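Pilot study result, target chain (470 residues):
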Amino acid sequence: MLLLIAALAHAELPAPCGTAALHHQRERPGRVAYPTPPPDHKPTRDAISQTWPHMLETENFAIKWGNQGDISQADAQVLADAFETAWALEIDDMGFPEPVGASEYRFNVYIGDTDLLIPSANGNAGYFWYDEEGWPMVVMGADTSRRRGSAEVTAAHEFLHALQASVNTYQYDGAGDWWFEATASWVEEEAFPENSESAGLFFGFAFLPEVPVNYFSYPSSGAVDEFHQYGAFVFPRYIGDTYGRQIIVDSWLRADFDTRPLNELNRLLDDDISDVFFAFADTNATWDYDKGEHYKESLEIYDYLDNHRPSGRLDIDGGWVEPVDFWPETYGANYWEIEPTDLPARFDISGDSGPTWHASIVTRTGDSREIYDLDASSGFGLADVSGLDTVDEAWMVIAAADTTDRDAGWSYPYEVRMREQPEGIGVCGCSSGSSGGPWLLIAALLLSRRRASQPLRQQSRSAPYRRPHA
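Predicted structure:
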């Protein structure tokens, strides 16, 4: 799905998927009917040319390329094997229906820009679209096709786009567009779990945590937010790890036509989607995934890009603070880095009315993680935490979910503070994680209140890329 160029001072941004632009720019052509072949024979058809300088046929695919681009037979074989792996996983295992016509004829894959007749990849890693006769096809970038890692994940990604089109559940011009790319990026790791390039676009999500998880922007200028929907693969990754992979598949196969993915997930899951997102936000404080270290390493390549994490740093000085630039939007989060202290600390939040709030303290010591909830759904909460000088990292997570205003693009203000725990106030305490980490005291009374001298306000996001979708 990407072209990951490492070992550069300022690494070149990866080439994204080109499917989004085609959905936006082109009309799908009408499909030309072909005779049904015998059931024991799957021939190769083509709307562009009947002869090619090079063609490699497999059981289900025909890989076609020209004399330009320096594509070897071995490169084509790697690509063919990758598409067959994608077919076995996404159709045979997951149960997606075959692309239109693919049960009768081989599915065409063109290596772009290798012949005058072959469609151009237009600078993309690859894309799914339709040929002149309305049959589904994939066009792969030549650079992508010469690199095994890129070829594998791009094949899995673009082929799932073909299957998404055959399901026709969501529309790619509205509420579902982000889910097309998030799940196509998610399936890369499902198909090739050892491939290091499956997290190459993770920075688009990780660097903009305040942006809604269901945000989408058409790739055009190379801005960080244009990669958000690809990096959001971590959301279906979290859902699959927590509830099982079938939930992701069912979100396509069992959904009503033209529905909203978050609404569909809310229907399929046993838990409310807002609570699922809040738990997801906590997990992202320390990237607590099987390949979390790999995800974090992928971010180091792009450390020169605009990164909104952390939202700020908290220390024991006791002053009220708000994010330097960006409050969370609905289904977005802020992450405050907590400075170590040997003093018992009290954390307070005072949030604006409107959304459901979530606030927690997340700590990590080695492989052990502790999550402590401030019980701040109404926007007010506090917690007492000790032992912050004994952990490897500590974060305060602030997230918002407004189910009544999902498309408005509002950000939700709040203030937080970290201060020394006052003496003489009796509270009860509990720990939600494994033993040996910091201990938490949840206050029985919510003492934190908004300061009258600095009223909170709801702010509309003015930046042009803020366009959330449910």
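One observation from the pilot: The CA atoms of residues 55 and 64 lie 4 Å apart. A full batch analysis is planned for the follow-on phase.
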